[in-house]
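Listing S7. Sequence submitted for prediction.
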Amino acid sequence: FGSSCGSSRSEAPLPPGRHPSASAPRQLFAAMARGTIKHLKRMFAPKHWMLDKLKGRWAPKASAGPHKMRECLPLIVMLRERLKYALTYREVKMIVMQRLIKVDGKVRIDMFYPAGFMDVVQIEKTKENFRL
């Protein structure tokens, strides 16, 4: 048996910039995902959003906010699918970034903002108010 302090074989010095663990064997299992899931497949979107099945693969995922994802309607779904103020994602983004949309009297520039039950959505240019 060798000495108790470390290995008895001599190791060659590593080139500069090379970490000793870089030569270690790779793990055979995949690491778990980190953080929140940022995407939502259209098939798993809440049914009350009434999105078309064949219009694409992805659905807009509501941001974290005052209402649960299953109990809210993101502004993008409201403006594009329900009210038909925009045809595309890009058009919704332009409307929201012009600060024309208020939710409960406060301007919202996040097009994925979750508007929920009893929220009032105001559109400045058309002078319209909608209550969910």
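Caption to Listing S7: primary sequence and predicted structure tokens for the chain studied. The mean pLDDT is 87. The radius of gyration is 26 Å.
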